Every structure is written in structure tokens, then in C-alpha cells.
Amino acid sequence: MGSVAAQSPSASCFYRKNDKDVIYPWVLVHSNRTTANFPISNSQRHCMKILVIEDEIKIADFVVSGLQQAGFETTHAADGVQGLETIMQNHYDLVVLDVMLPKMNGLDVLQQVRQQGIRTPIIILSAKSELPDRLTAFERGVDDYLPKPFFVEELVARIKALLNRQSSQSVDQLAYGPLRLEVLDHKAHWHDVTAVLSQKEFSLLSYLMRSPGHIYSRKQILKHVWNIDFDPETNVVDVCIRRIRRKLSRHSDANEDLIESVRGVGYRLKTEEAR
């Protein structure tokens, strides 16, 4: 696909034609602002390593340049296979991942990375911005999803927010009664069961642990865990709850008392007194 540059009074943009020759913006950067407006600490500036997996060279150069201006050490991979191999062979603090990649699409890269137990934060950049596309990515373990077109400033801000959350996680373990969650490797311990949870499963279960006995609505859970406004047509919360229950029931039937469904309302973590 060909790319052309276009200028507007307030922004410089890259545009790309799709298969129907419709031109739409992919990357936007304010001409009167730069990523330098997002300073990071000196300790971060020279040690944070980011991998950008993007097949469009102009877009990749644009993103890499913006991240380097923000002080990040940045590497580029041009297709899914190269990106996956690079992740497996090196340590990165964060990965920026396109979806529509040659050789292996970004969602498959994401899934394989998570199956290997790699918890590196991943942000997806994609023109596929419909709710089902975003939900699929979150189900496979993505940490954030930024639809195209996007401002490089926003990408940098999201990266910094993710990295700040990672570095501020000083608590190694969350516990309530016989339930324990290991923050760093997302392991859940429930009675005699140990299971590795996905990013969203861990986020959902730890959210319920905030206030055992409190009923959280599906709308609240969807907003907190997926950062998506409520959609009455989606059952993503129920599917995630079922997966948690299944993982924690492999060698024990005690999990029936762990998460309680409240018909027509939502879910809650049962208090020890109520079990």
C-alpha cells in the first residue's frame, strides 16, 4: 500500500490508501508540540527499551523518532515473525504492536508472547477500532489499545503511564483468606490450586478483591478492566469470569464459593463469613 504525506494548519499527517482507495489519516503530530513535552526521569531516559513492530516504514520511522525524542531506546521490527523472534531473544520494557502485519498478524504475535509467559506491557496500534477488535486484543492479553489515527504525544503519554504503573507495583502479593495473587507473574493460589491468569483475568479478580462482598456491575467491571464503555451486547465479562472459575477448579471444587453471580446485577467476591 502506498503512503503520501499531507499537511494541515495544525498537524502534519501520514495518510495511507486502503484497498478501496479511501484515504484516511494514520499518524498525527501537532506541529507546535513535540514529544519533548513529556519529560521522563534521567534514570528512565537511558534504560527504557521499547520495541516497535510496524510494517509501514514511514509510520515506523515517525513513531521511532517520536519515542527517541522522548528519551526511549527504540528498536524496530518490520513484520510479525521478526517481531516475535526479537521479543523472545531480548528484554524490552514495552512493545508497540501493529495488527495488520505481514508473515504473522499482531494478534497472533500477542497470543504467542503471552503463552510463553512474557508479561511485557504491549500497546496495540491499529486502524481496526471497532469494539469486537479491541475486545479480542484485550482477551489475548494486550495492556492498551490505541486506534489509528493517533497523536504521537498520546502514544508517549500512554507508554509512560504503563511504565509508571509497572514501576510503582511495590506489592508482590495480594491476599484475602485462602486466595492469593502474585502481582509479578499473575499467579493465583486458591486452596490447593495454582493457576496462571491472563492480564485481564488478573485485573478482574484483583478488582473484586478490592472490596469482598461488594457487588460490582458488569458495566463497572468492563470499564475498569477493559476501559470500554458499557455495551449490553457483549458477554466478555461473563466469559472472563468463567475462565477464572475453570482455572481455579482443576484440582478443587472449593472455587464455587469464590466468585458469586448476582442475577441481573453483576459479581462479587464472597466474604469468608459467607462461605
Question: What is this structure, in a nutshell?
Answer:
This protein is an alpha/beta fold and 275 residues long.
The portion of residues assigned to helices is: 25-40%
Question: Which segments are poorly predicted (pLDDT under 50) over 5 or more consecutive residues?
Answer: 1-40, 42-46
N to C succession of SSEs? EEEHEHEHEHEHEEHEEEEHEHHEE
CATH topology term of the largest domain? Rossmann fold
Q: Could you state the CATH homologous superfamily of the largest domain?
A: Response regulator
Shape: globular
Structural class by secondary-structure content: alpha/beta
Q: Biggest sheet, open or closed, and with what strands and sense? A: 5 strands, parallel
Number of strands: 16
How many domains make up the 3D coordinates? Answer: 2
Strand order of the largest sheet: 5-4-6-7-8
Mean pLDDT: 78
Instruction: Work out the strand percent.
Output: 25-35%
CATH architecture of the largest domain: 3-Layer(aba) Sandwich
Q: How many helices?
A: 9
Computed CA radius of gyration, to the nearest angstrom: 20 Å
Give a description of the structure.
The N and C termini lie far apart (59 Å). Residues 1-40 and 42-46 have low confidence and may be disordered. This protein folds into two domains: 3-167, Response regulator (Rossmann fold), CATH 3.40.50.2300; 173-274, Winged helix-like DNA-binding domain superfamily/Winged helix DNA-binding domain (Arc Repressor Mutant, subunit A, Orthogonal Bundle), CATH 1.10.10. Helix content is 34%, strand content 26%. It contains nine helices and 16 strands.
